[in-house]
Amino acid sequence: MDSEAARTARDSLELVFHMSNILETGLDRHTLSILIALCEMGINPESLAAIVKELRRESPPSSSSAPTTAKSAVP
Amino acid sequence: MEDDEQRIVDLVKELVHRLLYNAQNPNSSSSTVPARQKYNQALKYSLRILSSRMTPSIISDESAMVESIKRHLVTAGKSSEALTFADLYSKFSLKSGPGSVKNKWAVVYLLKTVSEDLKSRKNQSPNIISSGFLDSALAGGLPTLLENTEFNNNSGGIGNLIKNLNIEEFKDGPDNLLGLGYNFQSLSNMGKLKKNRGEGTLGDYSSNLKRLGDNLSGLRVGENVKTGLKGGVLMVSKDPENIREMAYREYADLVKEENEVLEEVLVRDVLYACQGIDGMYVKFDEKIDAYVLQDFIKVSRATGILVRKLCEIGWLFRKVKGYITETMARFPDEDVGTVGQAFCAALQDELSDYYKLLAVLEAQAMNPIPLVSESAHSGNYLSLRRLSVWFAEPMVKMRLMAVLVDCCKVLKGGAMAGAIHMHAQHGDPLVNDFMKRLLRRVCSPLFEMVRSWVLEGELEDIFAEFFILSQQVKAESLWREGYQLHAAMLPSFISQSLAERILRTGKSINFLRVCCDDRGWSNATTEAAAAAGTTTRRGGLGYGETDALESLITEAAKRIDKHLLDVLYNQYKFREHCLAIKRYLLLGQGDFVQYLMDIVGPELSEPANTISSFKLAGLLESAIRSSNAQYDDPDVLDRLRVKMMPHNTGDRGWDVFSLEYDARVPLNTVFTESVMSRYLQVFNFLWKLRRIEHALICAWKTMKPNCVTSQFFGNLPHAVKLQLILTSRKCQVLWDEMNHFVSNLQYYIMFEVLEVSWSNFLKEMEVAKDLDDLLRAHEKYLYSIVEKSLLGERSQNLNKTLFILFDLIVRFQSQADRLYEGITELLSRTTGSSFPSRSITKSQRKSNNKSSEPGSWLGEGRKDLTRHAGEFLRKMGKDIEKIAKEYSSVFEGFITQLPIQQHVDLKFLMFRLDFTEFYSHLRPSTGRKL
């Protein structure tokens, strides 16, 4: 039963990851799984999206010297 | 709850970590102090964001969301990816049970928002390169978390530097912002998520903030993009989409204020009303006979009108449904009829289509109605407006049905079909198709009746719906009265002539079956059906196939009629019987008539009440046996009877005697009683004519000059002789005149009338196609005989004159008889006195008379005798003169009346009678006219 649940969860994650790729969100599996878990807890997806947006904006400038090019390169 | 919150915080930490150090080496970056600080600030900021937005700004609708994503992909030119996405999503949404994602919508929405954000950033990138923080300020307001002090004075974020906020910039509501800032701070310090559990302050503030944003956005957005650094204002107007959503929410509030009831609920109620069920707010009002919104519901005027309009279909539905149930309920008892039933079934079918539509609509009504937002044009939700579009076509149909129900309420059978047919004459193809479909169903019982009537002769019409009525009648009147067209039940798509043909065909079959006892017609009908290309099975015909129907009728009629005539001609020998009637009733068989006249003559001179019809029948029998009639068909002779007409006192046998011909079934359809009575009329006339002729011949027998009388005349005294010759001469002249008239009249009747009519009749019999033709031909035949024989209505005067003439001739005959009796008596007395012995031969007597005793006659009593004879002759002469005078005056009347008659043939009679122009010379006035 547990393995069944795990398999379903894995499949779901995989599907979401694919969708995410199609939509070019640039999120990896791990991040997605956290986001899904948060959504499951009833967190407003809009807020989550906002966090993702904000923090992503934060990281590129600190990580690369050419933020604009990096940003456009991500998706 | 605590666990949950702790878990959320943990997850958020993890998330922030992942996002911040995604691209870098996590181990190295987390250790540095600035990175640490940055991490903490990011975390705080995240938690604050999470606490700020309690509910999504749009209503959760997964399918609408997915639709929207797909459309975006398609418009971006990635249709294959859109397909893949749809496929993935469908798989994803199928996942259920343990381990699956429950809040799928949230996940999808998250993905969508993130991806849209990326895209918009891509588009806006030229504008935001000036500062790495510009976009962040625009989007969420996280300007001062980094150590970029150069921005501190200007940015004025809500974070730690909220006190640096330039208050003058917020003339509209700095307090709110300030308070909000503090509130936020305290919340973030607590590090906990506060759900909106009764606190309300956050909600209030955020809504205030939104209003502020609305107010300012118009002014500031452009400015923001350029200068970018306007603090709190920037925060509330973070992106245009959000503004729009806020506006929508405002609109929703407005709508909610105006309408107490949600549109979804109204849609559901309308759907109920459309099924004839009262909804929560929309109920049927008996008083005004319509579905209405309850008065206490506050809705906008437009909505009210829309609901009322939509509910029309409910009213119509109620009407149609009511009719169906009512009809079905009284079906077995009262005469609804099969057509009515079919009509109900067809309506029921149409309604089931309507039910299907309603089911689909109801399923759609389950979907919530989104506001006029981006995703609104996708998804299968149902608003009142959409409903009005859905109902456009069913409304037309329902209206039609209601109209039909109204007009058919009192009708049934063919009349109903006709009424519906009238409505089918419509230019709109939708209406036309609908009516055709309906009519096909409605008319099927009717066509079935036609089919079984035409092919089997059966009238399966329990409810009197068919346009043919049957009556229980005797076999002989079956053809004429047994079946009739019922004009009221004749649907207008069957023409009158076609209906008549249908009637005749079925009638023929019934006639064959009932009267002719014939079974051969079934072959004819199968043949006809095969020729017409239809089957003899049920349901072979339908509405709209008028051509097929017509060809079937034509074929069937052709064959059935032919078969019927064959049966009549061959099996029942119609022609032979007609001939027999002509021979015996119309006195065509001369020797028979002569003989009959001879032997029944004495009998008929008796008073009518003393004559026994049995004796006459015996005499008829012997007349047949002694004439050529004996070689005729015994069946024919068997039918010939003597008939005594009802008689008054003083009638002679001549007046009541007649012959009768028993036609029997089925020929009595042609020779009905009325026809036979006309034959009888003709017979009586002809019989009288014959009798007159016979009488004249008898008179001639006695009065024709012979040796005996001429010799006898010679011996008479001069005065007596002169008188005798004079009288007998008068008598001869009159006889001759009468004979001329009678023989010409008889010639005319026999040849000009009877034979000509007969030959015409034979010709028409040849070309007759059906029994009706035959009947018509026979009718014409009989009519022409009656008319030309001066027996018709128009020639009544002439006929009366003729009968007076006949009477005069009869009187003349008896007068002449008496005269010659007297003469013979005179003769016998004179000869008897001179020749006592009567045993001597005629020739001897003659010679004796002549030679030996010429003077003995003049012996005793001679004077007396002469005086007697003179007196007698004078009297007779006077009588004859009187008759002659009377005769010539009546005859003159007859002659003058003759040309007035319309018949051409009477001209021939006139011509014959007045061949020498004797009569026209007598009366120059009429002579000239001729």
Automatic annotation (TrEMBL), chain A:
<dbReference type="GO" id="GO:0090307">
    <property type="term" value="P:mitotic spindle assembly"/>
</dbReference>
<dbReference type="GO" id="GO:0031021">
    <property type="term" value="C:interphase microtubule organizing center"/>
</dbReference>
<protein>
    <submittedName>
        <fullName>Mitotic-spindle organizing 1B-like</fullName>
    </submittedName>
</protein>
<dbReference type="InterPro" id="IPR022214">
    <property type="entry name" value="MZT1"/>
</dbReference>
<comment type="similarity">
    <text>Belongs to the MOZART1 family.</text>
</comment>
<dbReference type="Pfam" id="PF12554">
    <property type="entry name" value="MOZART1"/>
</dbReference>
<dbReference type="GO" id="GO:0033566">
    <property type="term" value="P:gamma-tubulin complex localization"/>
</dbReference>
<feature type="compositionally biased region" description="Low complexity">
    <location>
        <begin position="60"/>
        <end position="75"/>
    </location>
</feature>
<keyword id="KW-0206">Cytoskeleton</keyword>
<feature type="region of interest" description="Disordered">
    <location>
        <begin position="55"/>
        <end position="75"/>
    </location>
</feature>
<dbReference type="GO" id="GO:0005819">
    <property type="term" value="C:spindle"/>
</dbReference>
<dbReference type="GO" id="GO:0000931">
    <property type="term" value="C:gamma-tubulin ring complex"/>
</dbReference>
<keyword id="KW-0963">Cytoplasm</keyword>
<dbReference type="GO" id="GO:0051415">
    <property type="term" value="P:microtubule nucleation by interphase microtubule organizing center"/>
</dbReference>
Automatic annotation (TrEMBL), chain B:
<dbReference type="Pfam" id="PF17681">
    <property type="entry name" value="GCP_N_terminal"/>
</dbReference>
<dbReference type="InterPro" id="IPR007259">
    <property type="entry name" value="GCP"/>
</dbReference>
<dbReference type="GO" id="GO:0051225">
    <property type="term" value="P:spindle assembly"/>
</dbReference>
<dbReference type="GO" id="GO:0007020">
    <property type="term" value="P:microtubule nucleation"/>
</dbReference>
<dbReference type="GO" id="GO:0051321">
    <property type="term" value="P:meiotic cell cycle"/>
</dbReference>
<dbReference type="Pfam" id="PF04130">
    <property type="entry name" value="GCP_C_terminal"/>
</dbReference>
<keyword id="KW-0206">Cytoskeleton</keyword>
<dbReference type="GO" id="GO:0005635">
    <property type="term" value="C:nuclear envelope"/>
</dbReference>
<dbReference type="GO" id="GO:0031122">
    <property type="term" value="P:cytoplasmic microtubule organization"/>
</dbReference>
<dbReference type="GO" id="GO:0000922">
    <property type="term" value="C:spindle pole"/>
</dbReference>
<dbReference type="GO" id="GO:0000278">
    <property type="term" value="P:mitotic cell cycle"/>
</dbReference>
<comment type="similarity">
    <text>Belongs to the TUBGCP family.</text>
</comment>
<feature type="domain" description="Gamma tubulin complex component protein N-terminal">
    <location>
        <begin position="267"/>
        <end position="570"/>
    </location>
</feature>
<dbReference type="InterPro" id="IPR040457">
    <property type="entry name" value="GCP_C"/>
</dbReference>
<keyword id="KW-0963">Cytoplasm</keyword>
<protein>
    <submittedName>
        <fullName>Gamma-tubulin complex component 3</fullName>
    </submittedName>
</protein>
<dbReference type="GO" id="GO:0009898">
    <property type="term" value="C:cytoplasmic side of plasma membrane"/>
</dbReference>
<dbReference type="GO" id="GO:0000930">
    <property type="term" value="C:gamma-tubulin complex"/>
</dbReference>
<keyword id="KW-0493">Microtubule</keyword>
<dbReference type="GO" id="GO:0090063">
    <property type="term" value="P:positive regulation of microtubule nucleation"/>
</dbReference>
<feature type="region of interest" description="Disordered">
    <location>
        <begin position="830"/>
        <end position="862"/>
    </location>
</feature>
<dbReference type="InterPro" id="IPR042241">
    <property type="entry name" value="GCP_C_sf"/>
</dbReference>
